[in-house]
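#structure-requests
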Amino acid sequence: MNNLRNLFSRLSANIPKNGAGAGGQLPTPPKGASTAVFVLTALGLGGYGVYNSIVTVQPGHAGVIYNRFGGLDERTRLSEGINFVLPWLQRAIVYDIRTRPQPIDTQSGSKGRNY
């Protein structure tokens, strides 16, 4: 146990304090770096918001909008094609409204004679 403690104490002695380099000072970022980070973050969040605001309703489907504060909005229907919703506030619920054949297996009461 003491060997392990000695090993860690020797390793920690070689690590500079506060993340500083060999000179003891942190490197200064280039001029305008904070502006670039702000612009890139804003573009990323904006692109993410636009991506999440587009809803595509395929042919044979219909959609309704669920609002987080007001619940289901029955008056607003999403038609086929591209629709826009407010991200994080509204959610589109898309339903399949195509008609499908329902085969029904029935048996006749007669033996095939028409009387």
